[in-house]
Design goal:
Blueprint: H1 2-20, H2 46-52, H3 55-63, E1 81-85, E2 91-94, E3 98-99, E4 107-108, E5 118-123, E6 130-135, E7 141-146, E8 156-159, E9 164-168
Antiparallel strand pairs: 1-2, 1-9, 3-4, 4-8, 5-6, 6-7, 7-8
Length: 178
């Protein structure tokens, strides 16, 4: 009995002290890759991803799942701001690039950055030839890109809402003040 009490006391103390040190940001060590042109990649174990993501997000981002059409949070979402990777927070799309494709998934006609934030990978699954789009930083599955977009770019990034987060535009940063 005494042992039990002291053990739980120890656990309490441990929990307390670990809370205190939590402020110091724990960053997973990433070895600098010399061959890669990408700035930094984020590597986490599948266990870590399971802890951080909801089961639905994990299925889409890490197991290349697809959410049911028309069910996603951002399908009919047209606020001003930036759509981020749900895995690592990288800003991938802006509201200017979003259009209503009526396909049941958030759709964009371009991406932020110079093409280095989203990797395009040939996907031969389900007997189709498609191009998968993947977050370049964390490797999370986003969706697919098609060359049938209705806008000038001709591109349609078809993305799962579960793969995305949203950062609303700051009211003061919208006008490029100089
Ligand atoms: Zn990411």
């Amino acid at each position: 009995m005494n042992k039990l009490i002291s053990t739980s006391g120890f656990l309490f103390l441990f929990g307390f002290t670990s809370c205190q040190t939590k402020d110091a940001k724990i960053e997973s060590k990433v070895e600098p890759t010399t061959t890669s042109t990408m700035s930094k990649t984020l590597q986490k174990s599948e266990e870590e991803w399971k802890k951080e993501l909801t089961p639905e997000q994990y299925h889409v981002l890490r197991e290349k799942g697809t959410e049911r059409a028309g069910t996603g949070t951002f399908n009919n979402h047209f606020e001003k701001g930036f759509y981020t990777c749900a895995g690592c927070g990288t800003e991938l799309f802006s509201n200017d690039q979003k259009f209503d494709s009526h396909c049941g998934w958030p759709s964009f006609d371009g991406e932020l950055g110079g093409g280095d934030r989203i990797k395009k990978v040939k996907d031969f699954s389900y007997g189709m030839i498609r191009t998968e789009i993947v977050c370049a930083k964390c490797g999370g599955h986003l969706g697919h890109i098609f060359e049938d977009g209705p806008t000038a770019s001709g591109q349609r990034y078809c993305v799962n809402s579960l793969s995305l987060g949203f950062r609303p535009a700051q009211p003061d940063s919208s006008s490029g003040k100089k």
